[in-house]
Each structure stands twice: as structure tokens, then as C-alpha cells.
Amino acid sequence: MSQRVGLWLIGAQGGVASVVATGLAALQAGATDDIGLVSCLPEFDHLRLLDWNSMVVGGHEIRSTSLPEAARQFQQSSRAFDASLVDQSMSALREMDSRIRPGILANAGPAITALANESIKNDCRTAREKVEQVEADLAEFAKSQELERVVIVNLASTEPPVDAARLPVSWKALDAMLDDPDCPLPSSSLYAIAALSLGHGWVNFTPSLGASCEAITELALLKKVPLAGRDGKTGETLIKSVLAPAFAIRNLRVMSWVGHNIFGNLDGEILDDPANKQSKVASKDRLLAEILGYRPQSHISIEYIASLGDWKTAWDHIHFRGFLGTPMVMQFTWQGCDSILAAPLVLDLFRFVERAGRTGESGVLGWLACFFKAPEGVSENNLTLQFEMLRRWAATRAGG
Amino acid sequence: MSQRVGLWLIGAQGGVASVVATGLAALQAGATDDIGLVSCLPEFDHLRLLDWNSMVVGGHEIRSTSLPEAARQFQQSSRAFDASLVDQSMSALREMDSRIRPGILANAGPAITALANESIKNDCRTAREKVEQVEADLAEFAKSQELERVVIVNLASTEPPVDAARLPVSWKALDAMLDDPDCPLPSSSLYAIAALSLGHGWVNFTPSLGASCEAITELALLKKVPLAGRDGKTGETLIKSVLAPAFAIRNLRVMSWVGHNIFGNLDGEILDDPANKQSKVASKDRLLAEILGYRPQSHISIEYIASLGDWKTAWDHIHFRGFLGTPMVMQFTWQGCDSILAAPLVLDLFRFVERAGRTGESGVLGWLACFFKAPEGVSENNLTLQFEMLRRWAATRAGG
Amino acid sequence: MSQRVGLWLIGAQGGVASVVATGLAALQAGATDDIGLVSCLPEFDHLRLLDWNSMVVGGHEIRSTSLPEAARQFQQSSRAFDASLVDQSMSALREMDSRIRPGILANAGPAITALANESIKNDCRTAREKVEQVEADLAEFAKSQELERVVIVNLASTEPPVDAARLPVSWKALDAMLDDPDCPLPSSSLYAIAALSLGHGWVNFTPSLGASCEAITELALLKKVPLAGRDGKTGETLIKSVLAPAFAIRNLRVMSWVGHNIFGNLDGEILDDPANKQSKVASKDRLLAEILGYRPQSHISIEYIASLGDWKTAWDHIHFRGFLGTPMVMQFTWQGCDSILAAPLVLDLFRFVERAGRTGESGVLGWLACFFKAPEGVSENNLTLQFEMLRRWAATRAGG
Amino acid sequence: MSQRVGLWLIGAQGGVASVVATGLAALQAGATDDIGLVSCLPEFDHLRLLDWNSMVVGGHEIRSTSLPEAARQFQQSSRAFDASLVDQSMSALREMDSRIRPGILANAGPAITALANESIKNDCRTAREKVEQVEADLAEFAKSQELERVVIVNLASTEPPVDAARLPVSWKALDAMLDDPDCPLPSSSLYAIAALSLGHGWVNFTPSLGASCEAITELALLKKVPLAGRDGKTGETLIKSVLAPAFAIRNLRVMSWVGHNIFGNLDGEILDDPANKQSKVASKDRLLAEILGYRPQSHISIEYIASLGDWKTAWDHIHFRGFLGTPMVMQFTWQGCDSILAAPLVLDLFRFVERAGRTGESGVLGWLACFFKAPEGVSENNLTLQFEMLRRWAATRAGG
User: Which residues from A are below 8 Å from D333, CB to CB?
Assistant: First the structure.
């Protein structure tokens, strides 16, 4: 296949991006197998999704670092895989790194702003001008790399919640707001607007709400572009989305569900800011009531524990009543390397959204719900039933 | 509703039976709610399943004890519910107790045989004669209680595995074997044969294999009677049947799955005998390979720890690989009161099988798979998809 | 033994007090054994500590409830022991209840104040007057019950921290402050002052800091009275005080120690207020650095989860480095019934402090360190070495 | 310090030995710090124990492998430390490897025998001749390396239990037995006899019982040589030896203590043989009754789970009663890299035993109890009190 398609990452030198890049290089070189890649399951064989060698990676980043450095540091601190894998990928990583451009910032809150380069921090341009810069970067990427399509995936740090009441519901009104010097839209809105305006697919892998509003969905429909989100489901919430149905199916009454999460990567540092944490907790908490049909007492904590690095450890304690009111307990612990869990899903989402865009699907892709903590466009949260949606979508699509 | 239907329990004074009896008395008196009862979920409202007051309980037991005593002892040692619940149920329990008859024994292995009364232990009658005794007891129960139908549920201790190679595949040949003084059929076969011969539904809630053979299925079809089994899915395996799909759906590679179970009830004492344990472990172990599509290293232990009584505690350790081969770990612990989890499922199965029998369904009821560790008639082990089978069955049935 | 000694509880109708009362009644009646009672270990046999039948219980309480009611409710919600134990103790509980007097409040923060009766809440008397009321109640108790001695044990809810900088260091200056209408002393200071002034022993079983200041220690020495504290070591911290030494002894480097505590009793409700929680967390957190000799990253949370009631559940995650810098993990969960763990220690402390007072020991009793999370008078936090202190103290005392 | 002292390892190319070798090379090169080394605690500074550069390693091995290969494989499969550490140690490892000699085998059971080279497996010499071979190897090592002393540490796989009734109690009689063609002594006895006969210190880091008999202790006293053992306390048992005292000190009644261990190294493969496992389980199980003063129901399992490699994972479930008979639960999980935990203790034991030998201590060194699961010469199992023994020993020794 001689076509080339671009994967543009927002947060292109972060932990997840560095594993996406290292992993893609390894897949292109045949140096790893397809464990962890949903799109490689036999259910999707006939779709002939984009092959690894057709993919070209670029992105935006607000910090001063480099992809090879991020990959090296990730490997050393996580020990997730062997150092030789980074060594082998080094030239590919350098090439991808050369396609990374300085990102933009808007209403991202102090925790994220503190990470950014001075010039980005002090950028006083209007929202419109920032959108135009992103559009220019994307256009240059597509042109220079001779790409047929691009899909943008947001991997940036979680923003504080947006006050939706301040946002208009029509694209026209939102568009007008871009010239307002006090435009309240956060970075994630601006990236999404740029992507969709150019007709590129958009995936929100983060809990940030900037692209989850009616006006932006309208833009996607106007431009006939697919979008998908929100917040990649990688660990504790993945497990919740299979466990909670078991209690519902058995008519066991969950009295309380407590989840404590500890980890020490950059994401964790940002979430140590209560404003940013609020977006994340809201995203993790909604599914219980939706699956159970009632709201048990729930408590979710996310704490930054430096020594854990990317190894997100969760303890969940589920207190429930059975027959005759008997109280019982289930507990689980999850020790997962967060970027290792997230990165293949980014590649999967890229492949599915790329195919959807290529074959003319647009608007919110609800059949991608199984990938997200807070799936947009559907209310189904049971992982198995979400996967059935994906499987059925695939079953009705011809190959290629 | 003036109809009366009988629930006949094999192992009628054991832990599960004592909770079935106490719970049914509480439901009949309106003294408890429907937590833990699957058949009370809204999905089944329109079926108008048998109400609690139409149910009459009887059964067989090989030991010398009593239902009131078993219920009292269960409450005191488990502290699952308040003592007042047993007090209130006392007269109902005594009445049910008066309908319990001495059971039979055949090829049940030394651990079970050791529990039985002397007269049952030393009973040298042929298999045919034992079947006839069971039939006579069931007929007397139906007649004296003026029952429209009876469903038999096997709750007896787990038997050692049966060597299926020694059993004929046709009912005719199996029937002939009943006169053989060396007939290898275990108790559970004889009970099932008696139940089905009289046209009663049969549910095997245990791992015993005595009723899981072609010849007995043929008998059910001949008699146009439903049967369902095998081995109630109450705790660790229930959780496995939702967790394993999460690994499959994410294409995560399970390297090993270790499950250690400890508990101290009579069931646990019997399973301390390696022969009996073999049936149980086999039943618990099969679903992993069926869900994952490959066989990870697995280890299941079941140990008798007296102090735990009915509180079955399990620790599962799942070692899996993610993207780029990264090893990760999930662990869970389950602290469930086993009879409290099992008893409502017995009532559910009774209600579903009763309705199936009433409306002319016969043979193996595969749509009851969600209740069983080793469901007969289907290969689906994902709890959510099993429940979808039940839900769809219900959706296509009219009320009443 | 015909002597009678009084145990006066501050918080006399709370969870711990209700188990102290129920348990003492059971011990007096010979209806329970000595499990959980440290003072009943063979190491202390020769001391001939006060026997159960010489003990008379009274106390102060700021809420409107009753001891029989509190005991009944505790039994029903916790299912810790059989209901019959409360039934048998009922007349003893009613008698103890008749000796409970309305308590006082001062600078206790909004969470505690909200619990109190209106008349206590609105009590505008000076600190001096409140101390005098407590003294009068104690004197009346001693006289009416013909007591040879009294020991006061503080079991009241945790107060917000006291700003020690506002307190004078000499008893004379503190005494003068009692007339100040803006006297900053919290309730726990006033109770301690009353107790010590009358020459009674004082035990602080809570994290409240009101009695932990130089001036009050000076008062105890002046009056030749023993005092002991602070914060009963019952669960997670008990385990920490044996586990942390293992890491120190093996020269393993603890990088982080995370402890999450969930429970749902009244204590938990009060600790849901951040001001009150601060005292508790400080008390739980200090021992790690003292045992290890350095300060790993630590995080302690205490959350109110209503369904758990008195069953305090803790999850601790310890991340440590071994040889060649290898990171490893230990985790534990603790499921303990908090009042059941605390109550026998209250009886133990009463017996040890009573003996110390009787035989002329005064000031801070450092050899009681093994009972406390934040032991006063010593810096030893290793439970085994703390117990060695108690054992050696006992070994050097003659009997009786 | 110009002196040179030899550390001779039995099982010199196994997992623990490979970490001892890699770690010693790193310590000699100053490439790692002293985490995990007990002998580097400040309590022992004044003893001026042997420095790393004075140590020379050699040993016996029955398999065909190499130290560099074992170290490489350990690093790759465990990911315990960075690959660069092995790279840096490569020349040191090769040098140590050149000093490894073919070991001997006697009555080691089929699991161990299956590992051995053909020539060792088929070696029909008498026990006497095998002892003489070991002596010759040790003598050659001491001479060629110009060593002042040697300490032998047994790291070989766990042997099946020895029937002590078949062994004489005097050295003279045991010595005579060496010529018997049916001499029942296992390899570990023969190695110990050779070591002690030459006047070298002996440490048994394994559960093997071959050197734990009166006759061999007599030999050590005759030769004025120190010996220490048995079974390095590295993980689950280490934790037990601090946790069990907490229950004893609080007079809490342990009803049952269940410990499940899973791991996948060579040690685990050998322990999959029930005969070998019996020695290990006995060694792990004895301390509970010794600490608690009574014998709760206990269950210990050790299972070989290949995917875990050297990462020994244990789950312990402790069921205990508190005041008024209330049952409660504590659980812990331990995820430790076994060889990483063991190797520094081997270096510590070497240094302590070397110093003891140098300064004329002989016989069983009971003050090393804190290092062992089944300490010889003392009955103390509380880790803190064991460490106090070591600390006091050190405190009474002058430096150097």
C-alpha cells in the first residue's frame, strides 16, 4: 500500500506519545508483536486497516524536550521493556521528532501553563490566531509528507473543566467567539477546531472537555469529519466497566465503591492540581450509576506518588449486599504501566477513525465507546456490550 | 394465584438449602427484599414468574440433622443476617423439614459416604430400586401437597468424577444398566433419572457429572422435560467470567491466572478429598481457555480452612503482557458468603425452569448459562453475553 | 477484693464506650474470655491488676443518646458479636448509663459542636466554670460510688489541632488563662485539668492535643498523678509499627508508603472535617520517619464511607528498593472492627494506670508506649520494643 | 587492607549466586550503593567488617551453565536492574566463573538429580571420596588465591528431608558412615563436612537439613569453626516474623493463617517436587506456633508459575479473633524479587561469619538468627528481638 496517512499527536513528547512512537517504530521494523492492539484482533482482519508502514507521525508540544529523550527516560524509569527496543527505534524517533512543532496554550490552568516554554506561556495572540497557527502546522505536515489524510489525537495533560454555560451551542456563534480577547475556550477546543476545519478526524484521548460541546460537533458534521472521545479507558475504569455489570446482572446491591489511584508520571503531577483533577474524577465516576441504575456512595482519589512513575496502581473496594441483606466485599488491585496500556489504543483509534474518515463516516463515532471512560454519543458503559457495538460495526463493513 | 408448585432439593438440610428455606420463608412473609434474586430484575417482570407463596419445598437428605437446626447454625457461625430472621421463619422451617425424606447413595466416594446415616450407607439395593424409591418419594410429595409441577434441584456434595467411557450413550442402554449390581452410576444420575422419568424439571447446581451424559439428555427429550446445569456460578468464577473478557477485548495476553480459594463449610470438607476436588477444579478451570482462545498457565486451589465457615475467600493473581511485551499484574480478593450467594440463584433457576416446563420447553436450557460455571448446551462463558441470552429469551416470551 | 475504682469516660455513649461497657459487663459476668486484653497476658499475671468486679464506670457525654441504645445499635450494624451479649448486659448498661453526666464543650470546632445538645452548645460559661463543673461531677461520682480512685479516659471525637504557640508553658500561667473569656483551650484540656487537679490519672486515647502541653504535664507532676497518651494504636498504625522495622532491619529503602483508610462510624464523620482530620493524620504519620530514620513520601487518607460502619478498612502500599536498586512492593489490607479493637485497650490502660497511681508513679508513663500511635514521653515506635518496655516495667514490679 | 578471603558458593551458577556475583562486582566497582545490606547499617560500622575488595568468589555447581550467562538471563527475565550493570560486571563475572568446579551429588532426590551433568549424575564414588574431592577443590582455591580464610555458603536447591533417625549423633560414628556404600547423607552433609574439616566457616542458606545434625555440630566444635543456618529469611516469612508478634502482643487470637506463594525460578521448579517442597514448607511453618504460643490452623502452598520468574509473590490471609470473639481479617501481598532479596544477605552472612571465625568464635552462631527462617541454636523468631541479638553481639565487639 503506497498511501501515506498522518497521525498528529497533541502532547507529542509526553509519556504516551513516546510509547506510541517507540511502539510504531518497533511494529514497522517487525520487532514486536501485536499484543495490546485491539485493531489486530481477528474480528477486524477483513477491514484491512491501515498498515504500520503507511503511518507518519508528527505533533505539537508545549515543553522543551525531545522524543528520543522522552522514550529513553520512559524506558529507564519504567523498565517496561528492554533498553534495546529504544536503541533500535532511535533513528525513527529522531525523524518523528523533527516533525514536532511548538503547541499553543489557552485557558489551560496554572498547572499546565507552568510546564510550557516561555514563548508559549507568553503568547498573547487571539484564539483565532492560535487556531490559524495550528492549521498552518497541519497543512504543512500534510503537504511536506504527501499525506492523503491526517487524524489528530489529543494526548495533552488534562485541563480544568470548562464552564459549558459560557459556550454557545451553534458553530457560528462559537466561531465568532474566537476573535474575543477574553475567549474562554481552552487549548483542546482550539486544536479540535483547527483539525475539523481542515477536514481531519479528531480523537480526544483525554478527559479535557474543550471539544465536547454541541458547537464543535456541529462543525464536524458540517465538514463531514469523524470525531471520537473521551478519555482513554486503560486501567481501573476498564475493570470497573466489566465488574459493575456483574453486580447488576446478579441483582447485588453495591453500597459503596471506593477507588484509590496512585502514580507518579507527568499526568499525575498535573492531576495533583485540584482543578485539573476534577475533570478526571468526573470522567472516572460517571459509569457506575449508568451501569447499576442507582448511585452508590463512591469515592475516587488520584494521588501523585513519585516513586511509581508510570506504574499506575489502583485499589478498589466494593461493598455490596446480597440475599437477605448480607454485606460482602470484593477488592482488586491493578498494577499497570499506564502509557503502555494507552499507546496501543491510540494506534487502534487512529486506524479505526482513519478508516471511518476514508469511507465517509462523520460526526461522533459512538461505536468506539469501548475505548473511552466517558464515551461520547452513547450511554453504554458495559465493556462487553461496547465491544459488541464495535464488532457489529466491523461485521457490516466490507474489507479494504 | 392458587396453583402450587414443588421445589425438591437434593441435599435438603445442607447450607445452601437452609438459606433457600429461610429466605423463601422471609420472602413469603414479606420480611426481606429481592436483593440477589436475578429473576426479580425488571427485565423479567412481564413473565409473571411463580410467586413465592405458590412454592412448596421438600427434599432428600442423607445425614441426620434438621432444617431448623441447620438454619440456626448457619446464622450463628456466618453472622450473615440477624438471628431474628431465623426466629421468624421457624414454623415454616419446621414444616419444610417434615417433608424431607432419607436420600440415596451410590458410588459417591468415601468422603460423602462418611457423612451418611448408617442405613443409607449400608443400603445394598440395586440402582433400579434406589431410583424407584426416589420416584415414590417425589410422587408422594406431589400428591400429598397437591402440586401441579415439581422441579428438582441438586445441591448435594460434589461427587468424584464419573468415567464417562463406562457409560452408554443411549437411554435404553443406560436404563438396562440400572439392574446391574455393579452399576457405576453415582447418586446424582439416579436422582436425575427419577426426576425426569416422572416428567419433572431437573437443575444440577453442583459440579457432579452424573446427570451430564447423552443418555440422560435423551431421557429428558423423550419425556419433554427441561434440564439445566452445571455448577452454580457464585463467586470467584463469576468474577472470572467478566474479567477474562476484558483481557480478550483489549488483546492483552494472560500468561498465568492463579486462583486460591479458602473456606470452611461442609462443601469445603468434602472438597478436601482430592477425588471430589477434581470435579470442582475442572468445572472452575474450563472457562479461561474458552474465553481467551488459548490456555494460559492456570492454578486453582481449594482449601478447607475451618475458621472461615461459609465465607469463601478467594485471591486471584493475573499476570499478563501488554504492548511491547510489558508484564503487568491484576489481583482480586473476594469475600462472599457462599450459601447466601447460591440460595437466590436456586430460587431463580426454579422459577425459570418451572416456567419453561409449564410452557413446554424441554431438553437442555442453554439460555440459563449465566447461572453456571460449566453451562451445558452452550459454549458462551462471558457473563454479559450469557445474560443477553437470558434477556433475549425473556423478551420473546409473553407474560404469565 | 472489696475496693472499688472508677473508670470515667469522656464520650461515654460513643462507639468505643459502648463496647467498653458491654465488654466489661460480659467480663464481670464471666460471659466472655480475655481475647484482645493485653493486661491479661501471662507477663502481667503477677501484678494482680484490678479485677473486673472492682470497676465502676461513669462518664461525660455531649449528645442525647443512651448507653443501652448505643450498644444495641453497635451490635446490629457491626454484627461483631451476638445480639445475646447485649441482652445479657442490659441491666449493667442501664446502671452505667445512670452515671453519665452532660459534658462540656470548648473550642471543639464546628463538626463536634454540631453533635452536641443545645444547652451544651450554648453554654457561655468561662473555661474555669466548665472545669469546676467537671470537677464537681467527678467528685460526686467518687463519693456516691465510694471509690478509692478514679482514672479518666478521653474517648471523645478528635478535635482540630491546638495552636501550641498560644499556650503558656507553666501551669501557673495556664491556670490564669482559664478566666479569660477568649481562653483558647479546647474541651480536652479542660477535662484533663479537672481530672489532674483532683488527683486522678488521665489517659488520652484520642489524637486531640489539648492535654499534650508542658503546663498540663507540670500540673500532673505537682499533683503526683500519672498520665498517658496519645491516640490508641488499634489498626493500620499498629501494623505499620511492626512492618516499618522490618524494612529498617533489612536496610531496604522505603520510597513511598501510602495508606488509605475507609470507615463509617461517628469518628469517621467527624474526621470528614479537614480541621479534625489534620490532628489524626499527623498522629498516624509521624512514626515512619522515626522508625526508618528518613522520611519517605507518604500519603494517608481517611474517608467516611457510611456502609462500612465501624469496620475500618485500610489498604497500605509500600514501595521500596532492595539490592542494586530493585523496586519491589508490599501491600496489606486490614479489616478490623475499630471499637472492638479499641475497647480492650481502654480497659488495659485503665488497669495499668490505676496500678501506677496506686503505687505512686506520676507524670507521663512512657512505658505504656505500645498502646499509642503518638506515644508521649518516648520516641520508640517499634511495637516489639515498646512492648519490651512494658514487660520490663512489669518484671520489676512486685505483685498486688 | 591487603588480606584476601574466599567466599565459596554451593550452587555457584544459580539465581542467587549470579546476583551475589553481579552485586559484588558492582560494589567493588563502586557502581551501586548499600541498599539491602544489613552489614552496612550504622550499628555495625565499628566492626570494620571485611571490605568488598578483599573478597574472592568461587564455588561448586552441578549444572552446565556459566555465571555470565546466568547473570544475563536473570537480568533479562527479571528486569530487576539495568542491563548496563551486567555489562559492567562482565569481566569480573568471567573471572569468578573460572573458579567454579563441578559439584557432587548424593541422595538429592530425582528433581535435583535431573538437573545435573551426566558425569555428576553417574558418579558412583563413596561419600568419603566425594568429601575428599570437595576438600581438594577448597584447598586448591585457598592456595591458588592466597586466601587467609574461606567461608562456604550453601545456595543449592532444597533437598528432600533427611530421616534423622538414620543418623548417628556422634561425629565419630558419622565419619565412619562415609565409607558405607549406602551412606544416606545428602550432598549438603558432605559439603558441610568438607568445609568444617578444613576449618572453614559454613552457612546453610537453604532449608536442606543435611548439615543440621548433632554430629556435624560436634565436628564444628572440634575444629573450632563457626556455622550458621537455616534457610534465608527473605520474603513472606520475614513479614510473618514481624506480623505474628503484633497479634501476640495484642492478645489477638489467630484462628488461621494461610500463605500462598507463587514464583517461577529454578528453585520453584525443584519445589514442585513434593519431597523437596516438604523441607521448605516445614521451614516456613514452624515460626507461627513459636511466636504465638499455640498452633493456629495454617496452610502454606508453594506453586511454580513460570511467568513470574524470580518475582516471588505471596498472599497471606490471617483470620483472627478480637475482643468479645469478633472475627477480623488481615491480608498482605508481597511482590519481591527473590534473588535480589537473598543475595545481600549472603554477603552479610559471609562478613559476619568471616569476622566470627577470624576472632575465634565457633559452633552454631545463634546471634545470626535474624537472617534465617528456621534459626539454629535459638528459638527466638521475632525479627526485632533477633536483630537485638545481633546488635548486642556487635555492641560488645571491638572494631577491626
Answer: 333
Identify the H or E element spanning B250.
none
Q: Name residue, grid cell 474555669.
A: C128
Which burial class, exposed, middle or buried, applies to C2 when counting CB atoms under 10 A from its CB (0-12, 13-18, 19+)? Answer: exposed
Taking the CA of residue B309 as centre, how many other CA atoms within 13 Å lie in the half-sphere pointing to its CB?
A: 14
The C-alpha cell 483542546 sits at A188
CA distance A255 to chain C (A): 6
All three cell numbers of D152, joined, read: 562456604
pLDDT tens profile B57-76? 999 999 989 999 999 999 99
> Which ranges constitute the DSSP H helices of C251-382?
266-271, 274-292, 338-358
Partners of C312 in beta bridges: C336
Task: Report the distance separating Cα A334 and Cα B318, nearest Å.
Answer: 10
Planar angle of CA D23, D27, D29, nearest 5 degrees = 115
Query: In terms of DSSP H, where are the helices of B64-213?
Result: 67-78, 83-97, 109-113, 118-121, 127-144, 171-177, 187-197
What the block records as the C-alpha cell of D174 is 558419622
Q: Which residues of D touch B262 (CB under 8 A)?
A: 256, 258, 299, 317
Contacts of C269 in chain A (CB under 8 A): none
Distance (Å, whole) CA B296 – CA B289:
7
| Candidates A258, A327, A333; nearest CB to C305 | A258
Who contacts A345 (Cβ-Cβ below 8 Å, separation ≥6)?
Answer: A38, A205, A232, A234, A371
Angle at C25 between CA C21 and CA C27, to 5 degrees: 115
Q: Which of B348, B345, B261, B338 lies closest to B80 in space, CA to CA?
A: B338
**Average pLDDT score, chain C:** 94
pLDDT in tens, C43-94: 999 999 999 999 999 999 999 899 999 999 999 999 999 999 999 999 999 9
For C299, the 3-state DSSP assignment is strand
In chain A, what residues touch B335 (CB-CB under 8 Å)? 328-330
- Closest chain B residue to the Cα of C331, Cα to Cα: B331
Report the alpha-carbon distance of residue B104 to residue B119 in Å, rounded: 10
Question: What DSSP character marks residue A14?
Answer: S
User: pLDDT over 90 for what percent of chain A?
Assistant: 85
Cell 454557545 sits on residue: A168
Given an 8 Å threshold on Cβ–Cβ distance, is A251 in contact with B40? yes
D-chain CB neighbours of A307 within 8 Å are none
- For C104-148, the pLDDT digits (tens) are 999 998 989 999 999 999 999 999 999 999 999 999 999 999 999
Residue D269 touches chain B, beta carbons under 8 Å: no
Q: Calculate ∠ Cα B321-B325-B327, nearest 5°.
A: 45
| Phi and psi, residue C5, nearest 5° | -130, 140
**Set of cell numbers at residue C238:** 499498629
Q: Which tens digit of pLDDT belongs to each residue from C249-273?
A: 999 999 999 999 999 988 777 777 7
Q: List % helix, strand, coil for chain C (3-state, nearest 5).
A: 50, 20, 30
Q: How far apart are CA A145 and CA A7, in angstroms?
A: 11
User: Per-residue DSSP letters for A209-229?
Assistant: -TT-SHHHHHHHHHHT-EEEE
- Angle, in degrees to the nearest 10, between helices B338-358 and B67-78: 140
Q: Which band of pLDDT confidence, cut at 50, 70 and 90, is reported for residue C1? A: very low
Question: Closest approach of chain A CAs to the CA of C314, in angstroms?
Answer: 10
Across the interface, whether the CB atoms of D335 and B313 are under 8 A apart is answered no
Dist CA C315 CA C312 (whole Å): 10
Residue B145 near residue B188, CB atoms below 8 Å: no
Interchain CB contact of A329 with C (< 8 Å): yes
Mean pLDDT within B1-12? 89
Q: Are A312 and A262 in contact (CB under 8 A)?
A: yes
Give me B396's grid cell: 420473546
